[in-house]
Structure formats: C-alpha cells, structure tokens
Amino acid sequence: MQLTDSTLLVVDDEKAIRDSIVAYLEDSGYRVLEAENGQAAMALFEQQMPDLVICDLRMPLMDGTALLRRIMEITDEVPVIVVSGAGVMTDVVEALRLGASDYLMKPIVDLGVLEHSVERALERSLLMKENYRYRAELEARNQQLQDHVDRLKLDLQAGRAVQQRLLPEFPLEHDQFRITHRMLPSSYLSGDLVDYFQVVPGKLVFYIADVSGHGASSALITLLIKNQIDRFRDEMENELSDLILMPDQVLRQINLELIKTHTGKHATMFYGVIDTEESRLDYASAAHFPAPVLCTQDQCRAIEPENLAVGLFDDAQFETRHLSLEGFERLSVVSDGFLELLDNASLHEKEAHLLELGADPTHTMLDVLTQLADSEKTRSVADDITVLAVEKVG
C-alpha cells in the first residue's frame, strides 16, 4: 500500500487553516476528509475509519483531547497528530500521554513539516499493522501446530497402549526357570521389543529386539517382528512347523521380512530357546549389543555379539549355538539404551561395568533398572531401555 492511498481526517474549527491543510494534502495525493469540531469528526471517523487524524486541541463542542480519547477507545491503530497553539503545552503533554503520535505548534508556517509528520506516522502505522498481521498469522499457525501436536499425542498414546498389550503381562515360570522383563520407552512409542512364552512342554522361547531409531517407524517394525514370530508360534501349535525352535532360522526369516519393507530399518536381536528337559539353551545373536551377561555357579561372562543385525543384507547368515545349563544361575540381556545410564567415560568401561552389575549376586539387572528409575536418572536418556532376565529359581 502506498502512503498516498491513505485517507486523512483534518479537524480544525478555523476554516482558513483547515482549508489550507486540506488543499495541501490533497495536492500531495491523499484523500482528505474534514470536520470543524470533535463531535463532527467523531461521526466521520466512525463512518469512514480514516488512516490518520490531524486535529486541533482547542475546539468547541468536543475538543481535541476528548476526540483523541474517544478514538483510542475504539482503536490504537490509527495515528493522531495534534496541533496546538503556543502556551497550551499541558494539553500537548496530555495528548501524548493518551496516545497521540506527534504534535505540531501553530501556526504551521511550512506545511511540508506537517506532510513529513503525516508520512512518518503512516509508516509507523503500516509497520504496526503488518506486525499485528504477522503476529496473528503466527498465533494461528502456532495454534494449528499445537492442535496437530495434541492429535499426535493422542495417536501416540493410543499406539503406546496397543504396543503395551503386545508385551508379556506376567513373568513366565516353568520347571525352575523364571523369565521376566522391564521396559522404559524414551517416548510414547518404543523401538524395543521383548517377549517370552512356552510353545510346548519343556520349551521356553524368549527374545529381545532393538530397532534402529525411535518413534512410530521403529515401533511399527517391532510389530512386524512380533507378528512374524507369533506366526511361527501358531505353526508350531498347529503342528505345521517347528521353525520357532530354530533360532538361526527365525532370525533369517525376520531379516528377509525387514528387507522387504524397504524402510531402511534394521534391528539387533537375541533369540533363545530353553529346553528344560535337556537343560540346554539354544540361541542366536543378530549383533545384539551390549553383550548378554551369563552367570553360572562357576563364573559370569559376556556372550559376545555375533553375525549381522537383521534387515541389512538378504544373504545374511545366522548361527544357532548350544549352551549347557548345568550350574546355570541367570542370564541378563539389555538394550543399548541401558549403557546411557552408566557414568563411565568410555564404551569399554561401560561394558565392563555392565558385566560387574550382571555378576553381582545381590541383585538382578531388573533391580538395577528399578533403582535408576526411582532416582529419575532414566528421565534424561534419549533411547529406549529394556531389560530381559532369565533366572534359575529352584
């Protein structure tokens, strides 16, 4: 908008002065309205809503101060320039206090000074209007963003509720073995997955998966993994296949399924099958890190990560290893978010500390996680934290 497109209202009870101001401003390109007193000016203001008002302070019926006060009650976006005769500076001070943008002293010898004051006032007014508009747009966008965030939170909460129902509700206890877990997600949705169940008498399956990244996309991959393993479980129960008891084959199939998604997501996994009759653990590791801590009556040691993560290469191979459970005491498997809770400086020191925690017979890794959560240390961790514990309880 050009300044000369503005409409001005000139208010002065002296016709000669008013006519000279109106003629000068019209010659400058402005549209000019005029009034002889504050009362008439107020009626014009409400009808026409001019962009700027020039008013004398001393007028009959309604003086300039009263007019200014009425205008400011309606809007503070229209600048008002007051014109005052010499010797009435108290009126000028009051006008400025009420919100006048400028003042000029009578007589106005050079109307160019008035025009310059008009231009400055209109420029400030346009800038203020632009700022108001930008602020209104920003507030509207912020509200839209907040509404979107609120909807997203509701969706995440719903997704989190669904995901929680997919996790084991109770510890699994069978023939002196007890399997349990605890998970602390970094957000409403978790990229960690844990499950355990008995498929046939004497066969206990447990696994933990840690999907790359966080949030909804990682959570969807955990659903895919669980769905795949549940399908193998159904096949076993319907006597169609015993693939679920073959850790290497399970990881191989999950690897292929993740690659088919074309999401670029991969996951580390540790998959185990306990044969209580044979007292044997069959397991396969898909680069699960940190290393699970295995404790027997004789020693505690780390089961070093093997092979590749699932979801990287379609020709990846996985190997089932067999471990006697004679003298077995406990196995602790954690996701890598657990390492962020440890204060050690280097990764090597964190791994050594984790082995010490897992080897301490006075507590389990679940106890450690509970203590850290109670001290609110887990609140600052950006990654999901999961602990899976297998114990010999008999």
Describe this protein's structure.
The structure is a single chain. With 394 residues, this protein is α+β, with helices and mostly antiparallel strands. It folds into 2 domains: 3-134, Response regulator (Rossmann fold), CATH 3.40.50.2300; 166-392, PPM-type phosphatase domain (Phosphatase 2c, domain 1, 4-Layer Sandwich). It is built from 9 helices and 16 strands. α1 links the parallel β1 (7-11) and β2. It is rod-shaped.
Side by side, the strands of the main sheet go 6-7-16-15-12-13
Gross CATH architecture of the largest domain: 4-Layer Sandwich
Describe the main β-sheet briefly.
6 strands, antiparallel
Mean pLDDT, as a whole number? 87
Which SSEs are present, and which pair or pack?
Layout: E1 7-11, H1 15-27, E2 31-35, H2 38-48, E3 52-56, H3 64-74, E4 80-84, H4 89-98, E5 102-105, H5 111-165, E6 172-174, E7 177-184, E8 192-200, E9 203-211, H6 215-237, H7 247-260, E10 267-275, E11 280-286, E12 293-296, E13 300-302, E14 321-324, E15 328-334, H8 347-359, H9 365-374, E16 385-392
Parallel strand pairs: 1-2, 1-3, 3-4, 4-5
Antiparallel strand pairs: 6-7, 7-16, 8-9, 9-10, 10-11, 11-14, 12-13, 12-15, 15-16
Helix pairs in contact: 2-3, 3-4, 6-7
